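Write out the 3D structure for:
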Amino acid sequence: MEFINVIIKYIPFFLPAAWMTLQITILGIIIGVLLGLVGAFLRISNKWWINAIAHIYIFVIRGTPLLLQLFIFFYVLRQTLSLDSLTAAFLALGIHNGAYITEIFRGSIQSIDHGQMEAARSLGMSYPRAMIRIILPQAFKRSIPPLGNQFIIALKDSSLASAITINEVLLQAQRLAAANYKMLEMLTIAAIFYLFYTSIFTWLVNHLEEWLNVDNK
């Protein structure tokens, strides 16, 4: 009973940190989606040097740990570019997500029958217009399931921001545990917030799939 009482007592102390976690996650996802869309177009380009830019970006980001990327932004680029800690955190998370979302969008775009683009061009549509009106809507529907998974990964990855002094849920748990010596209870509260967020994200993605009638066909 005391365990439950401690959790109820300390949950309010986590609310600012929970809001910080949500901010980092949402901003990181927005940047990741934008970079992923640009990266996907670079990946499907017929020009080798444009394609090479996307390959290098994906190779570097996916080949190095997110924690290392956070340290680079916090200890190097933060001072060079005059960034605050929050900006450094969501930029690093966004760029990291962008490399994975690039491949999600690329795969979705290339899964659409090439004949649809040829048919659109034969009707007089320009390539950009055909891409926007014909290909991308279908590709977006097919990308919803893997995007949902990536968004949940981004949420859990936001906990690494604690390493650069961002007071998100995990760091708040550690700080409170250091003060009250109740590590299990504080980590349990942190887990409750993460489970709550992942449940909300999963629910939203599932409903979006139902609304768009995603069947990957």
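The CA atoms of residues 47 and 53 lie 10 Å apart.
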